[in-house]
Amino acid sequence: SLLHRATFLTSSARLDQLPPPGAPEVCFVGRSNAGKSSAINVLTQQRRLAFASKTPGRTRLINMFSLPDKLDPDQDIGYLVDLPGYGYASVARDDRNTWADVLGGYLRTRPSLVGVVLLIDIRRGVTDLDRRMIDFLVPAGRPVLALLTKADKFPYGQRIKAQFAVRKELEAIASLHTIPFSSTDRIGLEETGEYIENWISP
Ligand code: GDP
User: ipTM score here?
Assistant: First the structure.
């Protein structure tokens, strides 16, 4: 599938260092430790793709992955964009502001951004920091796919309950879809892959 062809393209520390907007982009955002890297790795079927983003010094960067055309690999059909995780307690205030500028700026202004995958740990639900993130998304009218990660930690009934609670919290988002997801148990994997591919190539 398209996502399995993902390859690392570039890392940028600032918005003006990103490649100029081109093919459709889907970005991934979420609290640190929500399971973002694991989700990107399992969705692309590449065990280490997103962990490059976690090496020291790279966690604050925007990492972009190309999704090349099958027949013409020089042509990119779309991009996956791994945005820095938020919520590291150790980050200095100045740094945090820069982070908010980068993240908020990207989410508000990137013209090629067709969808946002928001990762939420199913056990934690929507946190204050998630709400700040959502404040960037609502005015921009971005479509959001909320993945309720680590769904393997909950039995089915509790999963549905958590999904209902998250939907209620995120009701300000005009176009919202939620999927209970687990990288370890591959819950929701196929549905998520199809959803993202449909954003990129409807
Ligand atoms: P990130 O900081 O958002 O990129 O999160 P990671 O992908 O590095 O995952 C954070 C921690 O959660 C790691 O210890 C993972 O092994 C664990 N984790 C990630 N996804 C899952 C999942 O689907 N199920 C379970 N049980 N643990 C997970």
Answer: 0.99
Range of the domain at 52: 3-200
pLDDT tens-digit readout, 84-120: 888 765 455 556 566 777 888 999 999 999 999 999 9
Q: Please answer whether residues 82 and 69 qualify as being in contact, where contact means their C-beta atoms are separated by less than 8 angstroms.
A: no
C-beta separation of 190 from 160 below 8 A: no
CATH code: domain of residue 82: 3.40.50.300
Query: pTM to 2 decimals?
Result: 0.94
Instruction: Identify which of 60, 27, 70, 66 has the alpha carbon closest to the alpha carbon of residue 46.
Output: 66
Domains in the chain: how many in total? Answer: 1
Mean predicted confidence (pLDDT) in 119-133: 94
Distance 115 CA to ligand 1 centre (A): 22
Q: For residue 187, give the ligand 1 atom closest to its CA.
A: 23
Ligand 1 centroid–CA 38 distance in Å is 6
Question: Can you count the helices (H) and strands (E) in the chain?
Answer: 5, 7
Residue nearest to atom 21 of ligand 1 (CA): 150
Question: Which residue pairs, CB below 8 angstroms and at least 24 apart, start in 88-94?
Answer: 88/32, 88/59
